[in-house]
């Protein structure tokens, strides 16, 4: 007799209660229940219910109690717009980046330590849906910035507690409860940036730099270091009235809708995605700070592309120095691709993101659970912070390291890149950038001064100043 024939045959009976439950007789005479997937919808539902019940019975009561005891009480989380400001010096930009010291990294850590974010959500800021209204690059500051997230706000002292866990150069001004769909990035209508610029950058070109450009091969040139006497002469400079009038007229030409393809990186930029609308671009009256004359440039736009503001500033500086006509700017809007110089990131700061559309809805819709998203209630605190941690940092860094002077001289030592910036306002064939064309090699030697080295490094490593959802 074969082995299969020697085994007792199992007897199967089907109970009347469910087609999904079978009672099976085992070889030793015992009985056990077995559930099988039945063919009817009713039997399938019965099968699922029984399996769920069995699994729940497998969990020991003690384990369930331990889990319950170890979990922290669930506190309600509210969608909020967190209003902050920061000095970007010594930080690798706004956005969190593993291994880098960033503003978001410091902020999220403080939110967790203050109890605004629960322990369960403290491992990843995506769990609280954190979004920023604008990105800022390494070293760029913000007097006003908005971050949206789901936050625990029951503690009336939560803002003070968050600030206790933050360094002095990062501050939380307050928060506003917003609708559940609020996203600081996508609901931001426009952004206002400021750029602080020393007026000595408008001085006539240096004979020393022009002589280097004429006599030394490109790859062997070094950026010279200004002496103390030369720097003092530059800081004593005061821009004449005609220069200031030209500067104001030049920045005013950016207003309106233009094709800014020449004011961002080449990669991915086409005529289909490079148009931007600029509400206004204003120039302040000259200000004397630490013995130097400065201008405050303020621009409001719906959105800005990568490096756009710094290139807008850099172009005007070189136009003043070269005596180029304003008509050149019209040729650059949507014209052939040329290399527009990028002014130092040192002078750039985000003044505030604007939420006019959301605020209009908040003031008229009773269903919106909040007030308006704005910085008006904190103007005094922001003003004091901006002066101490932003303006003073910018002007002191320039005084110690001559960042703007080094940048200006680098453009003069290597003028081959900007031959279209001339008194005639013509764009020669040699200035046109051909996509994927091999770039001219950078010089192997740079000056060894600490100030110049810092400036060169800043220029070379800068990546993103101002970005939003429409950026490239």
From TrEMBL:
It is found in: Nucleus. The active site is at 137 (nucleophile). Keywords: Isomerase, mRNA processing, Nucleus, tRNA processing. GO terms for biological process: mRNA processing; mRNA pseudouridine synthesis; snRNA pseudouridine synthesis; tRNA pseudouridine synthesis. It comes from the Eukaryota. Pfam families: PseudoU_synth_1 (PF01416). Substrate binds at residue 193. Residues 461-472 have a biased composition (Acidic residues). Residues 54-75 have a biased composition (Basic and acidic residues). One of its GO terms (molecular function) is pseudouridine synthase activity. InterPro entries: PsdUridine_synth_cat_dom_sf, PsdUridine_synth_TruA, PsdUridine_synth_TruA_a/b_dom, PsdUridine_synth_TruA_C, PUS1/PUS2-like, TruA/RsuA/RluB/E/F_N. One of its GO terms (cellular component) is nucleus. Residues 250-356 form the Pseudouridine synthase I TruA alpha/beta domain. Residues 1-75, 433-472 are annotated as: Disordered. The keyword Ribonucleoprotein does not apply. Signal peptide: none annotated. It catalyses: a uridine in tRNA = a pseudouridine in tRNA; uridine in snRNA = pseudouridine in snRNA; a uridine in mRNA = a pseudouridine in mRNA. Formation of pseudouridine at positions 27 and 28 in the anticodon stem and loop of transfer RNAs; at positions 34 and 36 of intron-containing precursor tRNA(Ile) and at position 35 in the intron-containing tRNA(Tyr). Catalyzes pseudouridylation at position 44 in U2 snRNA. Also catalyzes pseudouridylation of mRNAs. Belongs to the tRNA pseudouridine synthase TruA family. This is tRNA pseudouridine synthase 1.
